[in-house]
Amino acid sequence: MESTIVKSVDYNAYFGDNHVVKNVNIEIPRNNVIAVMGPSGCGKTTFLRGINRMHELIPGATSKGKIQLNNDDVFDMHPIFVRLKIGMVFQRPNPFPNLSIYDNVIAGYKLNGIKLPKAEKDKIVEHSLTRVALWNEVKDSLTKKGSFLSGGQQQRLCIARAVAMEPEVLLFDEPTSALDPISTSTVEELFHELKKNYTLIIVTHNMQQAARVSDKTAFFYMGELVEYDNTKQMFTNPTDIRTQNYITGRFS
Amino acid sequence: MDTSLNNDLITRPDSMLGRVISSAKLRDAVKGIKRIKRSHRQIRTENVFKKTLVIVALSTVVLVLGIMVTLAWQSTLSIKASGLSYLWGKVWDPVQDIFGAYPFILGTLLTSFTALIISIPFSFAVGIFLGEYFPNGLASNFLKNTVELIAAVPSVIYGFWGLAVLVPIVRSFETSIGVAPVGLGIFTSSLILAIMIIPYAASLTRSMIQMVPSNLKEAAYSLGATRWEVIRSVILPYTKSGLFAGILLSLGRALGETMAVTMVIGNTSLIPKNIFSPGNTMASIIANEFTEADHPVYLSALIELGLVLFLVTVVINMLGRRIIKQFTQE
């Protein structure tokens, strides 16, 4: 039996009076890839940003209910601690433009004021870049600015930056929607590698991607979690009519 | 409307229908002619408007160049009399026709840079507060308007306020640290200037900070950075050239400020011994002595000061604007 790492209990999120995520209850097992899919505006990204408490950074955004990480409510922890445990990769690759590739990878340590000996930093950089299959491509240009890389490489750099902090969970907010097909498939291959060490929650607009990469899929519609099941089950035999309609392309 | 055109149409058997169609056609034709006429008129107006704009715009450029030429021309007498040593001459004695601008150049630099140092923490704090912590809302609007009001107060009011409020405070402070308690002087001027330039740097800082892409800030937050760490490691490095330009522009403002400074600086042509000494800036000596300049070389020497001040402020302003332009293009 797999152990649960992230669990939400009656989680609700709002932007002002706008109720965007409604009563979501979900249990996410460790070392799995979870795809969160649904049409635009269904609350999937808001839910994702609720997990590492990024949602509350937006002025006027509030939430209700619990999100647990290893049975501890994240709302009882300091948000900084939560975000160190739960890393995040965004829709658009966002390496820090003023930092080198090397500094981008250890940016999390720099930002948090953690001073490390050079040897240890080198190790973290090599390790993280290897994890995202970028080491061989950039090992000779670590001092170059991160913005010189291609879009796909930049996105892998951002994943390396999140991985460098050794989180337990990695959140991905439509990580390939700004990438070309080849970069997309490189990143997708990465997910299979990364899940050995981390739990991955991936918001995606792309149903094929959800089917390709995930162990379990959650389908959001109008702020509700409509269905959550093993991906194979979900795509072959969905129980809810709305899931069925979405998968068969009757709305998107 | 002219109906002769559709007379034959009316006589037709299907006159009712014909009339409807033809009068509609006629209306369209008339409309078309009117429209062409109107568009001719529009084009003419447009051309006149454009020419007027060009003339008005050019005349401002001519005006600025004219000021510069006049200043240069009027100061030739002084330039001939004192040469380049005018710039570092330490004595200003109109009675004996000795004109050295050094005390005033020093006074200007001292007041402006002291003012800058005093104002930077305040303007950055206001800029960061308005740009990052509370970009909108009631409290933020109130603060924003109040700070902008600082720029709207006439400088003579600052002079009055300085004389009535600041001078006694500075005087008692000088007594407590054992400096000659004059109250008037470089330091008091710097305090007033500092207040006057806060809105310039603050509003620039605010708009620069708001230009930082939110995905960079989010990246930092997602790595566990605190607000302060985001400001220090993401916002400040990203905006540093813009912030520098803001400082330069407020320096340009401080250099030229005349009225308030003239009222509280103490007006002496001696070289200031320390930051509490009375002195004069380039602007304040011009304002103070222009009406007393009773012979041509004296007047010309004052005008040459004006030329120096003009050139310095122009260079600083151009530099500041260039940096901002580069920043906003990136």
In short:
With 252 residues, chain A is an alpha/beta fold.
Structure notes:
Chain A is of the alpha/beta class and 252 residues long. Chain A has eleven helices and ten strands. Helix content of chain A is 36%, strand content 27%. Chain A has a six-stranded mixed beta sheet with strand order 6-7-8-3-9-10, with helices on both faces. In chain A, strands 2-1-4-5 form a four-stranded antiparallel beta sheet, with helices on one face. In chain A, a hairpin with a 2-residue loop joins strand 1 and strand 2 (18-29). With 330 residues, chain B is mostly helical. Chain B is 77% helix and 1% strand. Chain B has a two-stranded antiparallel sheet with strand order 1-2. The model of chain B is unreliable at 1-5 (pLDDT under 50). At the A-B interface, helix 2, helix 4 and helix 7 of A face helix 8 and helix 9 of B.
Helix-strand blueprint:
The complex is a heterodimer of chains A (252) and B (330).
Chain A: E1 4-15, E2 18-29, E3 33-37, H1 44-51, E4 61-69, E5 72-73, H2 79-85, E6 86-89, H3 101-105, H4 107-111, H5 118-131, H6 135-138, H7 151-163, E7 169-173, H8 181-194, E8 199-204, H9 207-213, E9 216-221, E10 224-230, H10 231-236, H11 241-247
Parallel strand pairs in A: 3-8, 3-9, 6-7, 7-8
Antiparallel strand pairs in A: 1-2, 1-4, 4-5, 9-10
Helix pairs in contact in A: 5-7, 7-8
Chain B: H1 7-11, H2 15-74, H3 76-82, E1 92-93, E2 98-99, H4 102-133, H5 138-152, H6 155-177, H7 186-210, H8 214-222, H9 227-256, H10 259-264, H11 282-289, H12 296-329
Antiparallel strand pairs in B: 1-2
